[in-house]
Design goal:
Blueprint: H1 2-13, E1 18-22, H2 26-39, E2 43-48, E3 52-54, H3 67-73, E4 81-85, H4 95-111, E5 113-119, E6 132-136, H5 142-156, H6 162-172, H7 177-189, H8 199-211, E7 216-219, H9 232-241, H10 247-252, E8 259-264, H11 270-281, E9 285-289, H12 290-294, H13 300-314, E10 317-322, H14 324-334, H15 337-349, E11 354-360, E12 378-382, H16 387-400, H17 410-416, H18 422-438, H19 445-454, H20 458-461, H21 463-473, E13 478-479, H22 484-506
Parallel strand pairs: 1-5, 1-6, 2-4, 4-5, 8-11, 8-12, 9-10, 10-11, 12-13
Antiparallel strand pairs: 2-3, 7-9
Helix pairs in contact: 3-4, 5-6, 6-8, 7-8, 13-15, 16-17, 16-18, 17-19, 18-19
Length: about 525
């Protein structure tokens, strides 16, 4: 908040007359503006549609409940002042209001004055687009939440060790000040004393609060990277960036990693990998469904900004953007070009440690500007698993169902399941278990092989589309899978060499036995 107030003070001094503060936190912003006005010796006027315009002393100015008359009164104020309008966004479709604001624009700056529109909804008429300066109000940061929690603990006489306090603060990030206070009150009213057990109450409150943002979901339980079969190149690349969020990385001169784009065949582990990256990096995970964002009834750009603001407040965080191509399809259908322009600009210029993991199946819907260098650190193509990866996937699926992989002929299953995706291999194991359970006997390799032989994988029915996808990806992306052909060649070559050495050593006359 302090950084935002400094920016506002700078804008007012530089004669920016119209500022738009995008936020749900009216009270928090108003308190900050009161401090700013006092520090800069400026009057603070406020307008709400419920009671009209209040002057610097807090007195109501008569006949100002309508926006247009309230704006007219500003012409009578001569000294430096901040005019805070809380409900003005609902009146910006009125040509009379827009005209008065345009007239004021040429007057306010020279007087050291500015109108500040405080609103959770972004509504900017075309006539004011070049005059309004948009500022996103950040959610409470670590220092603010720490102060708030310490004050509460002191009033309640509760002692808390430093490590637990840090966990409470970290879990509270991403919430508004009011949501944090409500969550803490819920813990106290439930008889809690801010213990380890009470932390789950805060986690649930955070999950519910974040879900109120369209398309955004807080995922608490991550997946170990060992649960992802294959994708050796991608795993190696990620392991090299798992320490990139540390202070040691900053001291070394490394920039914050931007993220990774996973393109490829449906059901081959893109979503699973996105969940595993959070576990690998040991940072929280947020999932953003851009299709839901662009089809929501509220302002698309405002909703997207809310999601970005939450992600930055939680940072470092993994922001998983699921099925990104749906967002671009919705952009074309619903006219959300400006919103996605905002998103792409943020991707290019973001400074907070938000590691973006985007997944997409239909690459033809993606515009070229998204794939430009600088948006992501790398773009990987996730293809159908090869025989080695299929073996890994089957082993993981069998082990996850509390069975010993060594008791099954998984190699034969892997060899016969060519063109099967990872998701289809999971279903092979599940279907085999159903068959065995129905016959009241243990599952066998024969059950899995029968399912494999009776099923036609999606890649077979969509062979032409898969070829197009591979052709598109070959010159534009990096393969997520290790090139096993080269590895197999060198392994076979070494085996042949060993066999030749052994054979040569057993041939009479070729070795000095003495």
């Amino acid at each position: 908040m302090d950084e935002l107030l400094e920016r506002i003070a700078l804008y007012v001094k530089a004669r920016y007359p119209l500022l738009y503060l995008l936020t749900y936190e009216e009270d928090r912003v108003t308190r900050g503006l009161e401090k700013l006005a006092e520090r800069e010796s400026m009057a603070l006027w406020r307008w709400r549609v419920s009671d009209g315009l209040r002057d610097g002393d807090g007195s109501i100015v008569t006949n100002t409940r309508r926006a247009a008359p309230a704006l007219d009164k500003l012409l009578d104020v001569k000294g430096p002042a901040l005019f805070v309008f809380h409900d003005l966004h609902t009146h910006l479709s009125n040509p009379e209001v827009v005209r008065r604001m345009r007239d004021l624009e040429s007057v306010l700056g020279s007087r050291g004055q500015a109108i500040l529109i405080v609103s959770p909804v972004l509504e900017v008429p075309a006539e004011l687009e070049k005059d309004l300066t948009l500022l996103d109000v950040p959610l409470p940061g670590r220092d603010e939440v720490t102060r708030l929690l310490k004050v509460l603990l002191r009033r309640q006489g509760i002692e808390m060790r430093k490590e637990l306090l840090e966990r409470y603060v970290q879990t509270s990030l991403g919430l508004t000040e009011r949501e944090v206070k409500r969550a803490y009150a819920r813990i106290l009213l439930g008889g809690g004393r801010f213990s380890e057990e009470d932390l789950s109450t805060l986690v649930e409150a955070k999950r519910q609060a974040i879900r109120r943002t369209a398309g955004l979901e807080f995922i608490e339980k991550a997946i170990p990277i060992d649960e992802v079969g294959g994708l050796g190149n991608l795993k190696d690349w990620l392991s090299r960036r798992s320490v990139a969020f540390t202070e040691a990385a900053r001291e070394f001169g490394l920039p914050q990693p931007k993220g990774v784009f996973l393109l490829g065949v449906q059901g081959c582990g893109k979503s699973l990998t996105a969940k595993a990256i959070s576990s690998m990096f040991n940072i929280p995970l947020l999932r953003l469904d851009v299709g839901a964002v662009f089809q929501s009834s509220s302002s698309t750009e405002g909703t997207l900004r809310d999601a970005i603001r939450i992600a930055e407040s939680i940072a470092p965080v993994v922001l998983w953007i699921d099925e990104l191509e749906k967002g671009f399809m919705a952009t074309n259908e619903l006219g959300g070009g400006r919103a996605f322009g905002t998103f792409l600009t943020w991707m290019q210029e973001k400074e907070k440690p938000v590691f973006v993991v985007a997944t997409a199946n239909e690459v033809r819907a993606l515009p070229p500007e998204l794939l430009r260098k600088g948006r992501f650190d790398e773009i990987f193509f996730v293809d159908l698993p090869d025989v080695h990866e299929r073996l890994q996937v089957l082993e993981i699926q069998v082990r996850n169902r509390e069975r010993d992989p060594d008791t099954f002929d998984l190699l034969q299953c892997a060899e016969e399941s060519e063109k099967y995706s990872g998701a289809e291999l999971e279903q092979v194991v599940i279907e085999a278990m159903f068959d065995a359970f129905a016959e009241k006997r243990p599952m066998t390799s024969r059950d899995m092989l029968r399912t494999i032989r009776d099923t036609v994988p999606l890649a077979v029915t969509m062979d032409d589309r898969l070829k197009e996808l591979r052709e598109w990806a070959r010159p534009r992306t990096r393969p997520a899978t290790l090139n096993r052909r080269r590895i197999d060649f060198f392994e076979d070559f070494e085996e042949v060499q060993e066999e030749e050495i052994v054979a040569e050593s057993l041939t009479p006359g070729t070795t000095d036995w003495n």
